[in-house]
Amino acid sequence: MPDQHSDTPSGPHSTPFLEIGREEWARLAPAQDSPLTSAEIVQLRGLGDRMDLEEVAQVYLPLSRLLSLYVANAKKLHAATSAFLGTSSPPTPFVIGVAGSVAVGKSTVARLLRELMSRWPDTPRVELITTDGFLYPNAELERRGLMGRKGFPEAYDRRALLRFIAEVKSGSAEVRAPFYSHLRYDIVPDATVVVRRPDVLIVEGLNVLQPPRDGRLAISDLFDFSIYVDARSSDIAAWYEERFMALQRGAFTNPNSYFNVYADLTEEQARAQARYFWNEVNRPNLIENIRPTRARAKLVLKKDSDHSVSSVLLRKI
């Protein structure tokens, strides 16, 4: 299968997306300095990501500004609709979905947008939830024979995730989600993440843009905006391997880590294990389930091999 870097078909008028190059996109940045310091960016970025002040200023500050415009206009539409209906109710949270492969940097993008958007006056309360909390517990995955397909769409409690987002979108005062521990590689019983009617909720996960099944409501049907973080498969594979190696030297050495069994591997063995996981689990999931949802996003961030964003695809209005 060819590793196409975007879903824009050939021909100048055959795509619903407007592709904006890095330099042109950077010129859309607000006339202000980045509200984040270098130290804050280091804390936000994931392993292997090379996010810096320049990347934030040129790519993510304009993106946060664009999103703030969408939020402001959603509030105006709510007010106009309420006036038309003769009703009075506060606007519901604006929900943003962030999708993409393992190791592509979507978690960094989601965390960064949470911090940047909370600096805009219309969106002071921004919360982030990851879909990891809606994976079935390992015991249930084992029972269903899905442990080797963790991260695939069928490994998630889709109904629970849909119910959670629907409650948030309906304006519920407080909604709880399960808590997932990356150290334990499992759901933590009786632990929850609480979302209390934010201005914006960011939902980050591998499969959040999956299409509806059997005519049912899709999770993405409840999104007001969606972002897909894109890169070549070969680049993501390299990032995944290097992240695995960094974790092997760090988090895996914790005796409580689910992956502690890999802590004493030689470098050659560890790299072989990382490639096995990529080729047997993560690459098939990317090709079969994740990348086909790319064209469903409203905005695509296209990354180069150094993790920098080379261009932005924005769905035409």
Model description:
This protein has 317 residues and is α/β, with parallel strands linked by helices. The protein has a single domain, classed as P-loop containing nucleotide triphosphate hydrolases (Rossmann fold), CATH 3.40.50. It contains eight helices and nine strands. A seven-stranded mixed beta sheet has the order 1-9-8-7-2-6-3, sandwiched between helices. A hairpin with a 5-residue loop joins strand 8 (299-303) and strand 9 (309-315). The protein is globular and about 65 Å long.
Label this structure with key terms:
9 strands, two-stranded antiparallel ribbon, seven-stranded mixed beta sheet, 317 residues, Rossmann fold, alpha/beta
Number of helices: 8
Provide the gyration radius in Å: 20 Å
Quaternary state of the chains: single chain
Structural class given helices, strands, pairing? alpha/beta
Residue stretches low in confidence (pLDDT < 50, at least 5 long) are 6-11
Secondary-structure element string: EHHHEHEHHEEEEHHEE
